[in-house]
Amino acid sequence: MMQRWKRLLKHRWTDERDLQRALPAPAVQRLETQVRASETRHAGEICVCVEAGLPLSYLWKQLRARDRAVTLFGKLRVWDTEANSGVLIYLLLAEHSIEIVADRGLNALVSPAQWQTIIEGLRTALRAGEFEQGLSQAVAAVDEMLQQHFPLAAGELNPNELPDAVILL
Predict the structure, then answer these.
(1) Would you give the DSSP letter of residue 39?
(2) Within 10 Å of residue 97's Cβ, how many Cβ atoms?
(3) What is the percentage of the chain residues whose pLDDT exceeds 70?
(4) Greatest CA separation found in the chain?
(5) What is the reported pTM?
């Protein structure tokens, strides 16, 4: 029971100021530019979402970061792309949790070990306090996978199916 209260307090104490310290506005803009540029090279969509703490309803039900990431994957419509090639990179600051949720089109082509490599790279950067660099490396790694599995044909354009904005919750 004490653990439950500690977790609740940790999530309530982590707020938008923590988000701004981790990712100041210029860093957010650079990540958005990177996502936008990436999507000119493949038929996929990348969504980056950073959340300070889980909503109270998730904490009360003792749900985890993965549950929240899967919910946001649906709410943000990352699953709703033409080629089923959307990817959500989710970071939960309060628990330093990282989740990557990929749509079935890409997930069927990428091994769990490949996803884990991206997560470990991001985790290493976060431990060093390098939030922007870690997220940038994760976006670049997902970009490479999408270029490999969903390349654009010569002259083909990728319609922007999702906003490129980094979502801060």
Answers:
(1) T
(2) 18
(3) 99
(4) 59
(5) 0.95
Q: Is 31 helix (H, G, I), strand (E, B) or coil?
A: helix
Q: How far apart are CA 85 and CA 96, in angstroms?
A: 26
Token output for 143? 């970009």
Q: How far is Cα 168 from Cα 14, in angstroms, rounded to an integer?
A: 13
Share of the chain above pLDDT 90, in %: 86
Write the pLDDT tens digit of every residue in 127-137.
Answer: 999 999 999 99
Q: Is the dihedral of CA 34, 102, 116, 130 positive or negative?
A: positive
Residue 48 and residue 34 in contact, taking contact as beta carbons nearer than 8 Å: no
Strand 45-51 to 86-92 pairing = parallel
Q: At what angle do helices 131-149 and 25-38 cross, to 10 degrees?
A: 10
70: closest CA among 103, 106, 114, 31?
103
Name every residue whose Cβ is closer than 8 Å to that of residue 77 and which is 6 or more positions away in sequence. Answer: 162
Q: How far apart are CA 30 and CA 12, in angstroms?
A: 28
